[in-house]
Design brief:
The structure holds two protein chains of two kinds. Chain A is mainly α. Helix content of chain A is 48%, strand content 0%. Chain B is globular. The chains are: A mainly alpha, B mainly alpha. Chains A and B meet through helix 13 of A and helix 4, helix 5 and helix 7 of B.
Chain lengths: 252, 277
């Protein structure tokens, strides 16, 4: 076999051995297996491991977040949840869902939760959020509001792209200090309500009931043993007098 | 040199005394580090944590001492398992020498109250008074409760993989209230009953020395002494008093612990309005 027959194609272009073989297949009847293979690669769902690296929302999400945790698909996408379409506890009209109403009336769902507040730039956080500025994170760990809530604009907690949205709070906020924080960890209530208050029974019932159960336990203990101890101490003061009387009666 | 008179009755073994001394030291350390951190907003709290190297170092000490308490509790449970009379179990748990609460203790409690009020005779206590049993079992269930909630709080990221994160809020309050209950009970009720009431004043050395005055015990626990005399076992339990130097050490240690406890109690009460809970 001459060199030209092996290395040169029909148009005089130099080809490799494999390409030459391919040309032969295309020219012949063995083209169909190749077509089936190419079609199969396209038709197979994109769950092939090699493709997941570049197509999966999970992988891309993990590239951006700070935590070392693993997050499922529903944590990166709304999935079946429908954001900013209803006002909790309020049903208005025949069709109660209104994106515009939600955006105006529910600040926790705004991209800028302080949108429209008068003289906002002259206010300090504690002017409106006095109670929230006094908790373990601020008082004990000396954190400032900005260290968690970030700079302006401060997105509402439920705004979909807010770092405080529960779907990513653990990664974007908690994990800054608590390495490896999970979504479960992020359900810790940072601004803990006063457990003794009646309002806590609605917002955090377990905390309310556990607090009062423990107070009842401690209070019950003291209610019994403090008077008991005082009475015992007083009573023993008279033991000597009784003995003295006995002793005097016995002539001792 | 004349031999010492054996006029004291043995009440506690060296192991039991060691458990108690260890508990005193660990409990006071936990109280000081815990209160120091809780009261960090006040000068009193800052001073308290400075003893242990600051706010963060206090937490480290609190955690390590907490581990020691858990180990001590585990050792105590092992000790109990060896001490229980398994041949007569479970009847052995309800004999007079057992510290398990019984119906008789409830009767003694009400009879004691009647004596306080001057409307009845003092009860004939056996080896353990109801207040001693209460103190023991309060610690016995208190340590596991503090240990579990303490571990949850010490490892919040890890524990939130098994529990919802909001349980940390609940665990913190359980830990706080249980710790405060324990401290107030020990620093007021236990200290007064064990050391400051007239019968034991100026200090009951029994738990340190292992023995108590036979006469004082006959006065307070007549049923126990009568039982020992009836069984002929009283003589075997009689021991002599410790030397004056050792007694002085017991007094110094006891009053140092009592002073530390009262300092924590008073400081905690006085500074409580200035703390963010």
């Amino acid at each position: 076999m001459g060199r030209c027959a092996l290395w040169w194609g029909p148009d005089g272009v130099e080809l490799g051995e494999k390409q030459t073989m391919l040309m032969r297949h295309i020219n012949g009847r063995r083209i169909w297996p190749t077509i089936v293979l190419l079609f199969g690669l396209v038709a197979v769902p994109t769950t092939l491991p090699a493709q997941e690296e570049v197509s999966s929302a999970i992988r891309r999400y993990k590239d951006r977040e700070a935590s070392t945790g693993f997050y499922e698909q529903y944590e990166a996408k709304p999935f079946l949840q429908r954001p900013f379409i209803s006002i909790p506890g309020v049903r208005r009209g025949f069709f109660p869902y209104s994106p515009s109403a939600a955006q105006v009336r529910i600040r926790t769902r705004l991209a800028d939760s302080h949108q429209g507040l008068k003289f906002y730039w002259n206010l300090r956080c504690e002017d409106c959020h006095a109670k929230e500025t006094k908790d373990i994170h601020t008082v004990r760990a000396n954190l400032t509001c900005r260290q968690c809530h970030g700079g302006e604009p401060i997105a509402g907690l439920q705004y979909y792209y807010s770092p405080f949205n529960l779907i990513r709070r653990h990664a974007y906020v908690c994990a800054k200090c608590h390495e490896g924080a999970s979504a479960s960890f992020a359900s810790y209530v940072v601004h803990t309500p006063n457990p003794a208050m009646a309002s806590t029974r609605k917002t955090f019932p377990l905390l309310f009931y556990v607090f009062w159960a423990m107070v009842a336990l401690a209070g019950g203990t003291f209610l019994v043993f403090l008077p008991h101890t005082v009475a015992w101490g007083i009573r023993e003061l008279f033991v000597k007098a009784e003995k003295t009387e006995d002793d005097s009666e016995k002539g001792r | 040199m004349t031999p010492k008179k054996a006029d004291r009755i043995l009440r506690f073994s060296p192991a039991q005394r060691l458990f108690h001394v260890t508990l005193i030291l660990l409990f006071l350390t936990q109280g000081a580090t815990g209160l120091g951190r809780m009261y960090i907003e006040t000068a009193w709290g800052k001073g308290l944590v400075s003893v242990f190297g600051g706010y963060e170092a206090s937490l480290t000490v609190h955690k390590y001492v907490g581990f020691l308490m858990i180990c001590g509790f585990a050792l105590h449970v092992l000790y109990l398992l060896f001490r229980i009379n398994w041949r007569e179990f479970p009847a052995s748990l309800f004999k007079p020498d057992s510290i398990v609460p019984q119906v008789k203790d409830l009767q003694n409690f009400f009879q004691h109250i009647a004596w306080f009020l001057g409307v009845g005779r003092a009860p004939q206590f056996d080896r353990w008074g109801y207040w001693e049993k209460f103190d023991y079992w309060a610690v016995f269930w208190g340590i596991p409760l503090l240990a579990v909630t303490g571990l949850i709080l010490a490892y919040p990221v890890g524990s939130s993989t098994f529990l919802p994160g909001w349980f940390l809020n609940v665990a913190l309050w359980i830990h706080r209230i249980e710790a405060m209950l324990a401290m107030v009970h020990v620093f007021i009720i236990h200290f007064f009953i064990a050391h400051l009431r007239r019968h034991n004043f100026p200090m009951d050395r029994t738990m340190f020395e292992g023995s108590s005055s036979l006469e004082a015990t006959r006065d307070e626990k007549p049923a126990w002494i009568a039982r020992l005399e009836q069984n002929g076992k009283l003589e075997t339990r009689l021991v002599s008093e410790a030397s004056p130097r050792i007694r002085l050490f017991y007094y110094l240690f006891g009053y140092a612990a009592l002073g530390a406890g009262v300092f924590l109690l008073v400081g905690g009460i006085v500074n409580s309005p200035y703390v963010t809970w």
